[in-house]
Design brief:
By secondary structure, the protein is mostly beta strands. Helix content is about 10%, strand content about 60%. It has a single domain, classed as Porin. Strand 7 and strand 8 form a beta hairpin.
Length: about 200
């Protein structure tokens, strides 16, 4: 009886060790850039912007060796959105920090040390006005815009625990108005958000 118990214990230990060596999760930290495209609308409002830079943190859980669920949180330092319309031909500027909260399904493919992947899912962009001299209108309010995330990239394995990950990300959402009716474009835009960083598997 003792021998059977010892064998069962050893088998259980081997299974646990095997599972511990199998990487089912990863976390990554990336540097990002946020490019919001020029928008010209039928409401006579134009939106101009410059590039924002920030960081993205992601967590993936592998459902199978080639598919995963991912959650993301990102934030940019700040950039300027300028709304131009007939009443203000020189534009009204809003200095903005943008946060992202999103989830995605990720499908990956393995080619030796290269692992290309595609992803898509829902998310939200939170536009946070910065109230300083860079913001022309102090009546602007924080706005959360619901949209969709999509992307494609590649991970290069540098060790069993680490890889370098680069991807093109896009986010489709409505153009923010910051609760100002004069800023309304009634349009959606495709925000470009490339990212490059390091992932740790555990």
């Amino acid at each position: 009886m003792k021998k059977i118990a010892i064998i069962a214990f050893l088998l259980a230990g081997c299974v646990a060790a095997g599972r511990a060596q199998e990487s089912r999760q990863d976390i990554s930290i990336s540097g990002t850039a946020l490019f919001e495209p020029f928008i010209a609308s039928q409401t006579d409002v134009q939106l101009h912007s410059n590039t924002a830079y920030g960081a993205l943190a992601s967590y993936r859980f592998m459902l199978t060796p080639s598919s995963a669920l991912e959650v993301n949180y990102g934030i940019t330092y700040q950039n300027t959105l300028k709304y131009v319309f007939p009443q203000f031909p020189n534009g009204v500027k809003v200095l903005v920090r943008t946060q992202e909260a999103s989830a995605a399904y990720v499908r990956s493919f393995s080619y030796k040390k290269l692992n290309p992947f595609v992803e898509a899912g829902p998310g939200a962009l939170i536009f946070l006005p910065v109230r300083n001299t860079g913001t022309t209108s102090l009546d602007v309010k924080q706005q959360t815009a619901i949209g969709g995330l999509y992307g494609a990239g590649v991970a290069y394995e540098i060790s069993p625990s680490f890889d370098i990950r680069a991807e093109y990300r896009g986010f489709v959402t409505k153009v923010p108005t910051f609760s100002e009716s004069t800023f309304a474009t009634n349009k959606w835009f495709n925000v470009f958000n490339p990212a490059i960083g390091v992932a740790y598997h555990f």
